[in-house]
Design goal:
It is built from nine helices and eight strands. The chain is α/β, with parallel strands linked by helices. The strands form two sheets. The chain has a five-stranded parallel β-sheet with strand order 2-6-1-7-8, sandwiched between helices. Strands 3-4-5 form a three-stranded antiparallel β-sheet, with helices on one face.
């Protein structure tokens, strides 16, 4: 039995889940888990090992050869080594969606994700947290934003990292990733029936976090550490 709530934040790529989830976790003094980073790590491992993103069994075996954990600030570590910019490139973004469609990979990472949130007091963000990973999460949010706005944000992020790519290319990649995420056979991206939808097009990350905090405060009047 959990001692504190699990907060699930789902939504499409580029909706601002990581920024918002990190901010909410800090506000609640909860742990933060970026589950998308795990799939990025799998794509990164595949590239480094010469494994095809289409080879589900080989990818799953590769996952089992590594140990993953998140530090308090939400940084993913693989075998004790922090993973940062190397898993945040446009190529690895595409790879994350590609490897995520394999049932073998999702099964391996499902146990990892559930282990990280088992005791509660955690904010997890991803594509299927509220529907598959923690369908019994006490709080569920689903972020929504237009493709154009999500692509614009991603383009600015990539430019800051020095990547040379056009806004049109980013938007096309965003649309392709949406299709892949929503049509995969296993754990497709969809909004949980009991999730609170949060439109993010015209809100800052701070405003979204404030909205979520207000919702949680109303749901747990005694505070987020008790329910």
């Amino acid at each position: 039995m959990r001692n504190k709530p699990v907060v699930a934040i789902d939504g499409p790529a580029g909706a601002g889940k990581s920024t918002v989830a990190r901010g909410l976790a800090k506000a609640l003094q909860y742990a933060f888990v970026d589950t998308g980073a795990l799939y990025r790590a799998v794509a990164f491992i595949a590239d480094a090992s010469g494994i095809s993103w289409d080879d589900g069994p080989a990818l799953a075996q590769a996952v089992l050869r590594h140990a993953f954990h998140f530090t308090a600030d939400g940084t993913l570590h693989m075998d004790g080594v922090p993973l940062g910019g190397e898993i945040r490139t446009s190529r690895i973004s595409s790879g994350a969606s590609a490897v995520a469609r394999h049932p073998e990979v999702r099964t391996c990472l499902l146990d990892v994700q559930r282990g990280l949130g088992r005791e509660g007091g955690v904010v997890l963000e991803g594509r299927d947290i509220g529907t598959v990973v923690f369908p019994d999460a006490e709080v569920k949010f689903f972020l929504v934003a237009t493709v154009a706005e999500r692509a614009r944000r991603r383009w600015l992020e990539l430019r800051e990292k020095g990547e040379s790519i056009s806004l049109a290319e980013v938007e096309a990649a965003q649309e392709a990733r949406d299709r892949a995420d929503m049509t995969r056979e296993v754990a497709p991206l969809r909004q949980a029936e009991d999730a609170v939808e949060v439109p993010c097009d015209h809100l800052s990350a701070a405003e979204v976090v404030a909205h979520m905090r207000d919702y949680i405060a109303a749901k747990f009047p005694a505070g987020p550490d008790s329910f």
